[in-house]
Amino acid sequence: MSSETRQILTTDGIPLEVSLKKAERKNKIKAFLLVAPLLLFLLITYIFPIGDMLLRSVDDKMVTEMLPKTFKSMEDWDGNEMPPEEVFEAFYLDFQKLVEEKRDGKLSTQLNYTKNGFKSILKKLRRKAKNFEEGNYKEQIMAVHKRWADVEYWRAIKRRAPAFTSSKYLKGMDMYKNEEGKIVSVEEDRRIHRVLWLRTLEIAFFVTLLCFLMAYPIAHLLATLPMKYSNLLMICVLLPFWTSLLVRTASWMILLQQQGVVNDFFVMIGLVADDNRPEMMYNKTGTYVAMTQILLPFMVLPLYSVMKTISPSLMRAGKSLGGTPFVTFWKVYFPLTIPGIGAGCLLVFILAIGYYITPALVGGASGTLISNQIAFHMKSTLDWSFASAMGLMLLAGVLAIYWIYNKLVGIDNIKLG
Amino acid sequence: MALPKYTEPHYRIWHYMYIFICTCVFFFLIAPLFVIFPLSFNAEEFLSFSEGMKNLDPDAFSLRWYKDMIYGTKNPWGLAAKNSFIIAIFATLGSVILGTVAALGLSSRHMPYKGLIMATLISPMIVPLIISGVAIFFFMAKAGLAATHTGIILAHIILGTPFVVITVTATLSGFDHSVTRAASSLGSDPVNTFMKITLPLILPGVISGGLFAFVTSFDEVVVVLFLAGLENTTIPIQMWTGLREQLSPTILAVATCLIILSTLILVTAELLRRRSERLRGINR
Predict the structure, then answer these.
(1) A15: which strand partners?
(2) Which residue of A has its CA nearest to B25?
(3) Taking CA atoms, what residue in A is nearest to B168?
(4) What is the dihedral of CA B109, B110, B111, B112, to 10 degrees?
(5) Would you say the ipTM is above 0.95?
(6) What is the pLDDT of residues B186-232, one digit of tens each?
(7) Contact B94, B214 (CB under 8 A)
(8) How far is B112 from chain A (nearest CA, A)?
(9) Which of A103, A217, A393, B168 has the fewest CB atoms inside 10 Å of its own CB, making it the most exposed?
């Protein structure tokens, strides 16, 4: 407001604009204070720990801290020829300190990750180092084992100098950094993680497709039937929705086992011989069947809520203008249901991609997903930094899907039940 | 869904096929739940229908597994049920209180950075559970809360609040704010206005959010698997171990009880939804 125009004053003589802004700010603070407790709680217990996962996944301080002198002396070494005497001396001093603290075992495990063969030569060094004389450590160490005279092994140590590493992420994609620092894939038969990623995507995709194909007709039926029938049928959708996931998985385990009801039925109608019952559980089939049934309600509900809003007179109008039922459906009804399809597919796909319990129980070896691998590393191998790295890769994928969805359909179109 | 008389034959066939497909899908959805009922009364130790059961022989049925569930030696279900209820009740209370208060703030038109904050608040629902599990485990381990009830309750509050936030903001979107202004102009303080005016009106939303939070906690297994020690075993954990190790019919007895519980929750949720729709005037 320019100074020439007369300012409107409130009764206390403060300009109205200032007074309004003050009130506005007060309201803003009030609203924010209501949200603050939950926001703070989630930040501390949830959002920061996810950040912590990020730190853990790239953290490689362990070796850096174990060999501080060595890495300092290696700074000037170009890595082409054998390192100079001072590197050997520093390494000897660092190593002796680790032996005193009984931490040399950890070092040998860590270095062995980088290059195979460190375990035995470090053990030998520990034995021999007791009798080392002062000075000329280079020759003494090189005399312990011929690998200590191999420049490759010293380069391997130098590679562990940085405090951060991307190796866990590379490992998650079955890649690693080789001696020259190039990123290469592991041998064909050891690419377990890529297989898992692909399988996770494949299963999530087909489960979403199956759910869509099954949910569309019943959502349509539910939306077009008179209320009193549709309410009854809605129970068929809502009861599984509210029932425990483990209960539903258990019932599939009973149905699909070799002596189970489904196999009994197949034998009865003569589809398979009694002594040749197919294995339907502990493989991909089991994962597909169980996951489709478990995730189906998440597809039906958004589809239903969209179809419910489509007026039946639109279809009648289409028909009266000469469209056959199929043409009317395809040109009028189907396009109107696209927001529902989008929401349902997004929900199911994202739930499926992170599924853990059902694949672990009915999936067997060929039906497990990436989540199972994450849980395995959290609970069995205790390689938490690797589990974090894989978890974050999965999270990045999920967020990317949300982003794409938001661009295409808009996230506000999601409805809950 | 009767067809008019003049329908052409191939549309007639298509219509019956459509009905048939729908029936199959409904059967696929609901039938697996019903296979558990009869098998939980199995007199034998198998998880398939015995000859006696197929012939409806009364001797083939028994309450053996229900007795085992309640009185069995070294049975873990009692402790698990107690833990599950304690954890779920406190987690629901926490989620409802934090979630409702936050939803009130979010629904205010003065709220700054609404989109970003909303995204943060509902993120536990979007992020795959396994990742939430890892993150929450790291926090609880650092805070010394792993393998404690408090830790699991806090974890379930994290997972439950998004549902409360969503249902309550949805209820508040149809809320007439002039009634609270009327209350304040009549001299009521904000807390009193909330308790006497706002809360009763948004109660259906709050309760259905609470139901979601309760079910989430009661059924949650991924995060608990990371957090729980022997003392904090819950029903889902017991079922998980049971299903992995030896499938005993006792699990089916437990599953039957859980299905009955979920039916009760479903009925409550449906009644609430209808009441709330009636209140919001979306009468169909």
Answers:
(1) A9
(2) A214
(3) A416
(4) 130
(5) no
(6) 998 988 998 888 888 888 889 889 999 999 999 999 999 999 888 88
(7) no
(8) 7
(9) A103
Pairwise CB contact (< 8 Å): A37 & B102: yes
Q: Which of A34, A233, A255 sits opposite B32 (nearest CB)?
A: A255
Could you give the CA distance from residue A147 to residue A153 in angstroms, rounded to a whole number?
A: 7
Q: How far, rounded to the nearest angstrom, does the alpha carbon of residue A296 sit from its chain's CA centroid?
A: 22
Do residues A6 and A149 both lie within one domain? Answer: no
User: B265 in contact with A at a CB cutoff of 8 Å?
Assistant: yes
Return d(Cα B16, Cα B30) in angstroms, integer. Answer: 21
- Interface touch A242/B243, C-beta < 8 Å: no
Query: Residues of chain A with pLDDT > 70: what percent?
Result: 96
Q: Is A94 found in the same domain as A233?
A: no
**B112/A242 Cβ within 8 A:** no
- The answer for residues whose C-beta is within 8 angstroms of residue B178's C-beta and 6 or more apart is none
At A201, give phi and psi (nearest 5°). Answer: -65, -45
Q: What residues of chain B lie within 8 A of the CB of A353, using their CB?
A: 128
Is residue A187 one of the residues assigned to a domain? no
Does residue A36 fall inside a structural domain? Answer: yes
* Structural domains present in chain B: 9-66 (no CATH), 79-245 (1.10.3720.10)
Radius of gyration (C-alpha) of chain A in whole angstroms: 32
Please give the model's pTM, rounded to 2 decimal places.
0.84
Q: Residue A284 pLDDT > 80, yes or no?
A: yes
Structure tokens of A273? Answer: 């011989």
Q: Examine the domain organization and report whether A255 and A280 are in the same domain.
A: yes
* Termini Cα distance of chain B: 19
CA–CA gap between residue A290 and residue A284 (Å, rounded) = 10
From the list B114, B140, B135, the residue with the least C-alpha distance to A39 is: B114
Q: Average pLDDT for residues B55-70, to the nearest whole number? A: 76
> Which chain B residue's Cα is nearest to A374?
B130
Residue A180 distance to chain B (closest CA, Å): 34
- In this structure, the answer to whether residues A344 and A391 fall within a common structural domain is yes
Verify whether the Cβ–Cβ distance B158 to A214 is below 8 Å: no
Q: Is A98 left (phi over 0), alpha (psi -120 to 50) or beta?
A: alpha
Give the nearest partner residue to A398 out of B124, B127, B236, using CB atoms. B127
Helices B77-107 and B149-173 cross at an angle (nearest 10°) of 40
| Sequence-ordered list of residues with C-beta below 8 angstroms from that of A172, at least 6 positions apart, any chain | A193, A386, A389, A390, A393
Cβ-in-10-Å burial (0-12, 13-18, 19+) of A290 comes to buried
Q: Is B219 helix (H, G, I), strand (E, B) or coil?
A: helix
